[in-house]
Specification:
Number of helices: 1
Largest sheet: 2 strands, antiparallel
Strand content: 5-15%
Distance between the termini: 65 Å
Radius of gyration: 23 Å
Oligomer: single chain
């Protein structure tokens, strides 16, 4: 799959070559100035990329995370996509079920990493506190 970096414009990635269940979405960086990617080019496929049902101009929707054509049933969710130029951190956009799953999994992983980092920091703080207490009492024995 295509890798994202700050110099990679979104439209340069061939979305057709990326398996739908393995789509790589641009990250939402933490802190500092937000790196903004060009939003995906909207594709006008004949069928929904999630379920395969046929689409007409009347029932075609577009996932704003990947740009692919999807039906209403396969794109019921809307979430913020702040990593794209012109998209705010609070404005919600239609996403297909596949992108939603990928985005939510990425956010779960970020939360796990953040939680682990907090646990390590707390453990280090506790250890430092215990070490300080042991040093004040002159240690064991006598």
């Amino acid at each position: 799959g295509a890798k994202w970096n700050a110099e990679t414009p979104r439209e340069s990635v061939d979305l057709e070559s990326v398996a739908p269940h393995k789509r790589e979405l641009p990250p939402v960086p933490e802190g500092g100035p937000l790196v903004k990617y060009d939003p995906p080019l909207l594709q006008d496929e004949r069928g929904c990329v999630v379920c395969g049902d046929g689409l007409s101009d009347a029932n075609r929707q577009h996932c704003k995370a990947c740009g692919h054509s999807v039906c209403e049933a396969c794109s019921p969710s809307r979430i913020p996509l702040p990593q794209f130029k012109g998209f705010s951190a609070t404005e919600e956009h239609r996403v297909c079920e596949l992108c939603l799953e990928a985005i939510l999994e990425e956010r779960r992983q970020e939360q796990l990493v953040a939680g682990a980092a907090q646990a390590v920091a707390k453990a280090a703080e506790t250890a430092a506190g215990l070490q300080a207490q042991g040093g004040e009492g002159g240690g064991k024995g006598g």
